[in-house]
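Practice problem: predict the structure.
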Amino acid sequence: MELIQLLVSEFEKHQNTANAVPMEKYMKNRYPFLGIKTPLRREIMKKFYKETGLLKEPFHKGFVLDLWELEEREYQNAALDYIDRSLKKLEKEDITLIEQLITTKSWWDTVDTLATKAVGKIAKDNPSVIQEKIEDWAYGEHLWLRRTAILFQLKYKENTDEELLYRFIKQNADSKEFFIQKAIGWALREYSKTNPHSVKQFIEKTPLQRLSIREGSKYLS
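Answer:
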């Protein structure tokens, strides 16, 4: 708790109500904000890491969970920052923690970061989690886990498992959910930078929602 109390104290010193209002509006008023913009938050975190030496220690799961329980969105962003800086320390069993975070206080800002960084890293280092976890996410009912399954390979480039990507997309292709349609388009657009011919053929042959087609075709001639 000392770590949390120290960070809360620093964040509260920089609380800015005038900034908080538009920040909350941008996030559809789903979560309250302290009003700390990203550049300043990163400066605070940098100072915090230096003073505490936290990044030199083993991955601190409890620190992440404590931040996730706090009300203002900046604390979830702080947790994401810590996870991002600790990617090399993540182990296979940490996929359970990441799943908990994806399904708690869920919105695109946290989910997409966790999907493309933490889940992507864990799955690349431990491919067995795809069958053990991510497969169920893609075929399940939870919106944000389905989005994660579509996006976790986003940064894989030539290491993308194309069959898996296309299969997960087909499974979710008829979804009416904006965030699923957008994820499909985003995944296809990113993979088209590596294999444009394959993506072009896939889009032509696969029944997809208009949004997915529009987003996925942006870099295709």
